[in-house]
Amino acid sequence: MKNWKNIAKKTVLGLLLAAVLVSAYILGSGQRRQTRCAWVEINIEDSLQTPFVTSKKVKQYLAQEYGRLVGIPLDSIDLFKIENILNSKPSILSSNAYKTGDGTLSIMITQRKPVMRFDAEDYGFYCDAEGYLLPLEPDFCGDVIIVDGIIP
Question: What is the CA radius of gyration of the chain?
């Protein structure tokens, strides 16, 4: 008889614990859906040494091609799309976007590093160490080798 009582007590306690866990999961997922993007944090690797890409420029790219981010639900933000937009820019080597529970959208960017600048009469461009051509940036004047003259 005591075995049945112990089994019944453990079963009731197990069911209560399961009910509490399911309730906590349901309530927690409801709160996650309501969390809105409060802030976009942009971290650019080596931005102090080579300020080729700026946070302002990244925000412009996203505003033009993605739209508004601050104020929309975090669950509706497409991180893959954000990364594709940024990775399509010639000055950005790679990007990684992620969301945090406090409403922050964080974006980590690795920028290309120009090592040479080509200048012709009516156009110019930068080149990185891998030979990738980059457009001139009006806010950037790097300490790089300059090649001037007739450039095919």
Answer: 26
From residue 71, give the alpha-carbon distance in Å to each of 39, 55, 57, 86: 8, 19, 20, 21
Q: Is the dihedral of CA 64, 68, 74, 76 positive or negative?
A: negative
Distance of CA 110 to the CA centre of its chain: 11
Instruction: Go through 36-73 and write b for each residue having 16 or more CB atoms within 10 A of its CB, e for each that does not.
Output: ebeebebebeeeeebebbbeebbeebbeeeeeebeeee
CA atoms of 46 and 121, how far apart (whole Å): 31
**Which candidate, 123, 118, 125, places its Cα nearest to that of 145?**
118
- State CA 55 to chain mean position distance: 12
Give the integer Cα–Cα distance in Å for 127 and 90.
11
Distance (Å, whole) CA 127 – CA 31? 47
Confidence of residue 30 (pLDDT cuts 50, 70, 90): low
Q: Which residue in this structure is represented by tokens 């080579």?
A: 50
Structure tokens at 142: 């790097």
Write out the two tokens for 18: 């399961």
- Each residue's pLDDT tens digit, 113-129: 899 998 887 788 889 99
